[in-house]
């Protein structure tokens, strides 16, 4: 079964094979890639090594990858490397910046191919970590291919301006329902595809502590657009996006070593991203695909990381809900720099951390432009891109 | 099987037995109620007979019901009966007005208990219309009880202010995900529960014409809140709401006989309702339960009814998206009258019909208050309620 599935997955030309990078932050050997081999092997991987650069990370044979550790990041970005978090998976955003592809898929190294039905007695999860991959089926009987579903989500439009009650109208067997204005049926370009998790849900530390046994076993067979004007908690565990459309907004902030907060990296990126996609008329989708999240992180450690964030998010949400960008902000970079200005002006009084974060947001954009010089510009070896 | 299911459904005390009315608009004998008997028999039915009042509508034995035909509506409302549509299922909203209960469930007479899996070979749909009801299972193996699911939706809070990626956080096995502000986890009172349809989807005439064979067979196991600020197409086929919270906004407009438009009754009610629930801090849910929609209506007849609406909705959506209610509008009635004023001011120029509709909106509120005098007021036999 395993080999035939793998063969089937590899036989067809993989979607966007040369236009998508898979970004993985890690502190350990990447044995988990064995499970993803039939789906990931055709793609290029960007591995961002978190923590001690002296440690060697083992990548299974046969994968095409580049790996960056802290020394590499310091060397490439110079003083601007200060915007990349250390000892935190937030460092993954360096991978978004260094990629040259149009699309990014990022995943945590404790996430696996999804199984449906979850907890099916015939699936022995322990055996699943071995090379003999059993790819299970979704309710319609098809193999779940998370990456393929993300690509489908990104390549079809979003519907941020009006809610469709039968979910994604572009999906086979679905459409816009009665009462959906025809002028809005073209939809908007999709910038982000946010996937979900079976088994261990993405809960905060207090919820983890209160519900240690809760597992997500509900497979909701839907993809939907998060409406314009609505914020959501974007999780970085199973996430894809269009770099050209939204890349520079995908900054995962200052977390981890030396910072007063952790586990808000993806949230921060999600709130900034949503304000900017709303402003630019782009779409954000959530729902399918599911991945299998194998292991809950330690809730006590998490509480320590989240502690400040739990208070601060009460101020952050109203800030982002009321944030408004000027008409002149017509690129992601301009939007992001404007947002940095507003962060300094309005969140600096919540905590001094936000002044530092606002500075880093500016540095991030400088670093992004350094590695991604605008077309028609020449990158200088050691500075911002200059126009020809 | 059939009788044991029915017995099981009746054995437990039905939820909200004395607090909910089921409103059904019809032009034909109500044989379809046989299928719903195990679920509906404990409740009181309000049947609104559409069209010729001389026709006798047969209701199966054993149901507790009151039936109103056009003569009854004219007698009860006098000149205000003009606000109730004739020869259109929009007349159902008279049932909302005449009810004395806190909750309403309304359903079309061509809708049946849902089947899952859809198109299961063991289900012969023809036989299902007989008294031998085969109640099918949802994916978790439980009987689908649409009314019970609506009641659960209405009795648990909504989350209109922030999006929860794992859908309804109040459902068993689910919760708020990381990054969801704790101050928002109490949610908001739920005013509306909008259910969906398997088999025949609720498409407009152009989509029906283009996709005559499309059937909805996707069971999406989710209930979600439609975010604040987002409009949706509310379908009246499978709908429940809290009369106390939102009843006076559930006016289904002027449709059918003598009007230039049909099939926008529920849409109109939905757009008005959403603007008002957003203003008052109430929630609207959509998703489960599914009902089985048995028969597509004639797309040619529908196109004739919808023709004007297809143009007008392009103006209506921006109107409702930008509608804003003043702080003083602190009851549904006040909100609705304010909205009527804005309809006259801004939509009158789209078509004279909207001036007539604005007048009817005012009449509807007068009629509502006539039949539902404010507490502490005495209803007069033939006029608006007067305060004591």
TrEMBL record, chains A, B:
One Pfam family of this chain: RGP
Alphabetical list of InterPro entries matching this protein: RGP, RGP_fam
Catalytic reaction annotation: UDP-beta-L-arabinofuranose = UDP-beta-L-arabinopyranose
UniProt-annotated site: Required for activity, residues: 178, 185
GO terms under cellular component: cytosol; Golgi apparatus
Main location: Golgi
E.C. no: 5.4.99.30
GO BP, one annotated term: plant-type cell wall organization or biogenesis
Places the protein is found: Golgi apparatus
Enzyme class: isomerase
Residues bearing attached sugar chains per UniProt: 178
Organism domain of life: Eukaryota
Alphabetically ordered keywords of this record: Cell wall biogenesis/degradation, Glycoprotein, Golgi apparatus
Function: Probable UDP-L-arabinose mutase involved in the biosynthesis of cell wall non-cellulosic polysaccharides.
Protein name: UDP-arabinopyranose mutase
